[in-house]
Design goal:
With 124 residues, the protein is α+β, with helices and mostly antiparallel strands. The chain contains four helices and five strands.
């Protein structure tokens, strides 16, 4: 059995300061349908971190499928995910000019370039 290719993704977005508590609260119990869509379309090891001094959310996840664009569209077409995004998008501000929400033509979250990676492994 072959190991699927893993694509690492890091993204950022602003969190509205008045929404911090609510955002953290809803993420303590993410809707099962949203998690199922992520799982079904090959998203693993997903985390979102909060950096309060800059009102910054930092998302990291791995994609293990073979058609990233197709799977991202499928997640975006999921009705429960669309309802979740409507709720969470209202708590965020995109860095991308013209962005109007998740799943639209202009990305809501901003991709961040990876500049270093160390995966460990055995030493020589």
């Amino acid at each position: 059995m072959s190991t699927p290719h893993t694509k690492r993704i890091c993204q950022i977005i602003k969190l509205k300061p008045e929404c911090v508590d609510e955002y953290k609260e809803i993420h303590s119990n993410v809707w099962p349908g949203v998690l199922n869509a992520l799982r079904q379309y090959h998203i693993v090891d997903y985390s979102i971190n909060h950096y309060p001094p800059l009102n910054l959310l930092i998302a990291n996840f791995k994609y293990t499928g073979s058609d990233f664009e197709k799977d991202m569209k499928a997640i975006g077409d999921d009705e429960e995910t669309q309802r979740w995004w409507k709720l969470t998008d209202s708590m965020q501000e995109s860095f991308n000019d013209g962005a109007s929400g998740s799943g639209k033509e202009i990305p809501w979250w901003t991709d961040v370039e990876e500049v270093f990676r160390f995966e460990g492994g055995s030493s020589a």
